[in-house]
Amino acid sequence: MVRRTKFELPEELRPFFWDTDFDRLSWEENFGYIVRRLLSVGGSGVISWLRDAIGDVPIRDAIVGSKARGLTYHQVAQWIPRSLYESWIAEDPNPDEPEPNRPPGALPLDPAGDSSPDPSELRSE
To answer: Hey, where are the domains in the chain?
Structure first.
């Protein structure tokens, strides 16, 4: 069941978009970017929130639409088979190309997924 609806991102997610103008993010324009960012740096609570908020089908669609750019297999394993993920990795000629639906001015995700700041260490000013 698709539960994708129009709503603003909860303020609690702001730290996950440290390099992006959070107030300008839009589900309609940046859907894939938002989903991939939350999958790449969000913990299990954030992933549970995302699944409850929009459902598994839109999450899978965002992963497939971007060919999992910027995500590890561990981050997408519950939505796609390993063989599909590995085929995307094998065919990607430009791994440094910007992610689809990335807002202007946002820094690219680290494909290794291990240089993102710990959101608990970020503070709002």
So the answer is: 28-91
